[in-house]
Amino acid sequence: MSVWEKSSTVRVVPSARPRKLAKVPFVELADGRLQGVVSSGSDIGRVYVSSVEAGTYAFACSTNNNRPCGGARGMFCNHIRALVGEAVLQYGAERVARYLKVEVDAAEPDAQTLTDVMAATRPAAAGSSAAARVFSRFLRQLAYLELAPSTAPVPEMQWFPTTRAVA
Amino acid sequence: MRADLLSDAVDGLDEALAAVDGFDEALVAGLLRPQPGQTGGLTGLADAVAGTPLAARVAEAADRTAAGAAGEDHFVALAAARTALLGSVHDALTARVDEVTGRPRAEEATVAAANDNEHAANLYAAARSWLCDLVRAGWQGIDHELVGGAAPVVSAMLPDPALRRLATLLDGFAAELAASCPGVTLERVPVRRWADLWSRALLLTLPGAARASAVAEATGRLLPLGVDVQEHATAVQAQVHAVFEPADGGTPRLVRASVSAPKPDTVVGAGLWQLLRPHMSLLEAVSEGRAMDLDAMPVTAEGDLVWDDARARGGEPAEALATARVALPTAAAFAVAPLDRHPARIAVPVLLEGYGVEEGDDGIVFRVAGYRLAVDTGRVPAAGPLSPEVVAASGACVGLLRWDAGEFLLQPLAVERTVRKKTVAVHAGAWAGGTTDKAGIRAEKAATDAVGVLRERAGRLLRK
User: Fold this and answer.
1) Which residues contact B91 (CB under 8 A, 6 or more apart)?
2) pTM of the model
């Protein structure tokens, strides 16, 4: 086995990079999709749940009340474009491209390039069946802020050292 | 410090680790229907504990597992055998570190009987069931549906402080597995790490495994050495390593004080300090370079202070490097709890001076008494002033001696360097309690804004 395989404390998932959360409070690479929550620009009580599937780039965008996004008819809406942009800030373009299986020639791809490459394949709209699940994952993370910190030792955290390297 | 001893072979270490590796490799393809290539790893593990009280149960578990007929109890027995083996590795390495530091040996703690109740038995059972499904599938067999099975268990466990340890572990483990799905396409597998996390989680599902040990009270002076930060996407813990001098003139002891919290994955860097700061005044004392006076602070049999701000007040200035020079050599360590005896748990405060520095492709190395000690600068928190460049320019370093993947490593906590003929100390945890550093203030502002947005969103969306 290699040193990496024999390490107990190697970081498998690097930390997220810090970014501004006002427009896109939640982004994740999960369930075979880039998915997240985008705050509405006009109504502070409304958010959009947006996603792009890895490989096919099938996309979906709807509000948290399950109304379809008007902009996502046949093409990426602005919410999805914002989602890709923030994902690139949080994870780095390379990791986002790898997860979504986007082939880019540029050595240093940016969010615009990724979005253009995906849009050029004329991806189909996906159903909004994932929206409820993504939204509940977002709420679950928000709920973490409400859990009380503790001063009882957690020895298990020895397996999760901090790392200066980010995604 | 006799660093030359670090390079000497440890008797039996390779054999014990070979048995661990054999078992770990069997988990990659899963234990649902083990192939002939996997059974060697199972019997190797059983053979390695043949001379222990676990012998009969592990031998039976290995047999049944090899036949593809293992139940939960059999997997628990295998996890216990693996944990015991790594416990012996921990003990051998710790004995070596004791020789290196010349520190007085810790007496064995007598641990109080388990307070065994049926607390949350159904949640433990659910976690155990998920872990057993996981090991049947193997790391190459994981998919989103299987990994997603951990989420409801974690959500139900997190609010209960008694279940926080297992919940935090499962949450971090499941997130890693989810990021690695589907398993069939994995190019490489963190073989030892995932076997570690799996076996530890499985043992924590047993009644009484995660109980707090007997608690005493500590009254006296606490001299901080530095802060170690641990984090995964949705949890953070800061541990202050310190020397405790009892007011009654007893032996000084090496202790830790911890504070931890669940968090959203976008709370990072300085945001971690902001989350923890309000719950442990010691973090501020660390930033200010002060000791603290403790009055009847609870302390476990492993030397963990269970911090309570009401039992501590700010003391005299105390520089970590001075503490390391004066108080550290005579401080005795506490014994480690049986379940925590694992090489990953080794974190021994040491002071190094008069070393040579080598900078290469694989990072910084300190040359001490002919031994090349790798410096793990990656473990220094990002929200702090201690950069790899500062470490490389240092002349004295207080750090944690650790061991991973077959070698000893040094995690820097604080260093001393000479700038214009003046000695300056730089601490990894300097920003723990707040900072006036320009870059630090920017990081704090960004983190405050991020949490502000999340709290606003939570207030608006959560209770609808």
Assistant:
1) B341
2) 0.95
